[in-house]
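Design request, tokens follow.
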């Protein structure tokens, strides 16, 4: 695999060769729920030991272990020289590591971190997998195009298979065979571990630089992630390409959660995690794009709870001619991505201290004050002056609380643009949490709670007239509107007008005062600006900009 230096969700369309269109998969929503800090330096693949509750990360100079329950980090369980892959063996008692610079496969005790056996594999051993049918470990030697077969019981080389080409990730088929991505041939090699030979080739039309690979759907489907921002779904038996799916830039793995019927492709260039639905093996499709950060291109899934662990680091600007920026010192982290839950309160990217209410907003007018009376008059004037159509629009705006409020202004079906939708829903989510802290702090009574003659167009049973300052809807409008205006500058006037009109709807609904919506203008613009300038999200914003640069479809 290539060296690594380093939510929002939607149902997305894919470029598929299937003869019939399939129903859109169920929407998948995941978000970052935690981060584990680590030391600087190169990393590659990560592996979960669910029995021990630990994650092992292949680092440039060591194998790193993080105990998930206690958060204890062992920076160097054992020294290494360009570690690439770590396999967990013997119920967690043993690790097998591919040591890229030494050309060795090494067996390590997890108890004391000692290397107790070494096997010469070939030039630049990289990815590896364990085959349960033969009991052998297959090591892909990127430097000489061979696959070394190692017996983990005798710690000896059991043979080699000459494949040729730049070998990337491989997977066992559970029957004594396997599949290996050949990066420079844009193909998958079939191998037989028993006969120790290459048995066939699967062409990957439309794929340039296959890296990550997975076998899913009870061994009937292969998913190959490609450097040209697509993933191919292949019939494992016939070798036929069934679908070509749009993903992000710089992918290096395909992570499978069979329990939940999902696969995930971490795309380090875009800073996204592309979720695939495996519910229908005949129609594997993109089910969501989750914001992670630029550089997160490998990872591991904990089968116990479905949490996904992604090593990453904040990357600096990309120098001319370079593929990616250099890591910022002190920024290495392991992102913890989990299924989103109702009531998630933690910000994923924004700093809560930047949105401390008394440092961000002035206090609203107090109840019964002349200032409140003046604002209340404006609410009455807006309601009295609004015709039936404008009141109906205010009600519709109240009911619709997602970035699609800008579809007309943007001239796009925004939900159909995966990276754009991921950006906009992330901005909405982060802004909503930032707004919520001020709502709770100030706890202002809404207009319809002060004046019972005002009809609240939301009319929700049991609704309380509290938490009125700032406005959540207006926070969405102003933050997403500002973001979209930067991404689509030619449509900025219409987009920003729509944001303001959406805020006015909150007054016509009797739900907010003008200062409530203007407070949201402040918080929304601030949060949107911070997110747009966060280097961790630069890849996602670039991907969204590329999508929006394409001609709008009608």
């Amino acid at each position: 695999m290539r060296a690594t230096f380093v939510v929002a969700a939607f149902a997305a369309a894919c470029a598929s060769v299937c003869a019939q269109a399939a129903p859109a998969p169920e929407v998948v929503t995941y978000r970052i729920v935690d981060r584990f800090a680590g030391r600087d330096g190169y990393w590659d693949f990560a592996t979960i030991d669910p029995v021990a509750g630990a994650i092992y990360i292949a680092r440039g100079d060591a194998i790193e272990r993080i105990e998930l329950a206690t958060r204890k980090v062992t920076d160097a369980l054992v020294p290494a020289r360009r570690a690439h892959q770590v396999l967990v063996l013997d119920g967690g008692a043993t690790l097998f590591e591919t040591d890229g610079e030494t050309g060795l496969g090494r067996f390590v005790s997890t108890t004391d971190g000692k290397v107790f056996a070494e096997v010469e594999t070939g030039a630049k051993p990289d990815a590896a997998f364990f085959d349960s049918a033969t009991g052998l470990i297959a090591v892909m030697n990127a430097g000489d195009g061979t696959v070394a077969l190692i017996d983990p019981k005798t710690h000896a080389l059991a043979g080699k298979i000459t494949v040729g080409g730049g070998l990337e990730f491989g997977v066992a088929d559970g029957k004594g065979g396997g599949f290996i991505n050949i990066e420079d041939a844009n193909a998958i090699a079939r191998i037989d571990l028993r006969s120790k030979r290459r048995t066939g080739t699967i062409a990957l039309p439309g794929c340039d630089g296959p890296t990550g690979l997975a076998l899913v759907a009870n061994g009937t489907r292969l998913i190959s992630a490609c450097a040209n921002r697509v993933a191919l779904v292949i019939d494992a038996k016939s070798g036929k390409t069934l679908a070509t799916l749009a993903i992000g830039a710089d992918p290096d793995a395909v992570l499978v959660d069979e329990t939940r019927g999902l696969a995930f492709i971490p795309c380090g260039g875009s800073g996204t995690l592309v979720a695939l639905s495996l519910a229908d093996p005949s129609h594997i499709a993109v089910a969501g794009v989750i914001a992670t950060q630029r550089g997160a291109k490998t990872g591991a899934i904990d089968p116990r709870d479905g949490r996904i662990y992604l090593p990453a680091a904040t990357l600096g600007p990309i120098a001319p001619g370079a593929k990616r920026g250099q890591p910022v010192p002190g920024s290495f982290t392991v992102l913890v991505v989990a299924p989103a839950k109702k009531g998630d309160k933690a910000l994923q990217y924004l700093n809560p201290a930047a949105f401390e209410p008394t440092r961000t907003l002035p206090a609203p007018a107090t109840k019964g004050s002349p200032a409140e009376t003046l604002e209340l008059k404006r609410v009455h004037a807006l309601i009295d002056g609004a015709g039936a159509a404008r009141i109906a629009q205010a009600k519709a705006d109240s009911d619709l609380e997602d970035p699609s409020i800008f579809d007309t202004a943007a001239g796009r079906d925004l939900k159909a643009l995966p990276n754009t939708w991921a950006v906009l829903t992330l901005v909405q989510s982060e802004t909503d949490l930032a707004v919520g802290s001020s709502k709770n702090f100030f706890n202002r009574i809404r207009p319809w709670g002060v004046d019972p003659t005002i009809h609240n167009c939301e009319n929700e049973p049991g609704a309380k007239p509290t938490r009125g300052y700032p406005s959540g809807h207006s926070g969405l409008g102003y933050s997403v509107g500002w973001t979209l205006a930067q991404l689509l500058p030619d449509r900025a006037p219409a987009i920003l007008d729509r944001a303001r009109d959406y805020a006015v709807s909150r007054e016509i609904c009797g739900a907010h005062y003008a200062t409530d919506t203007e407070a949201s203008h402040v918080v929304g613009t601030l949060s949107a600006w911070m997110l747009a300038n966060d280097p961790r999200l630069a890849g996602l914003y670039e991907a969204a900009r590329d999508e929006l640069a394409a001609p709008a479809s009608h």
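Comment from the thread starter after seeing the answer: thanks! The two ends are 40 Å apart (CA to CA).
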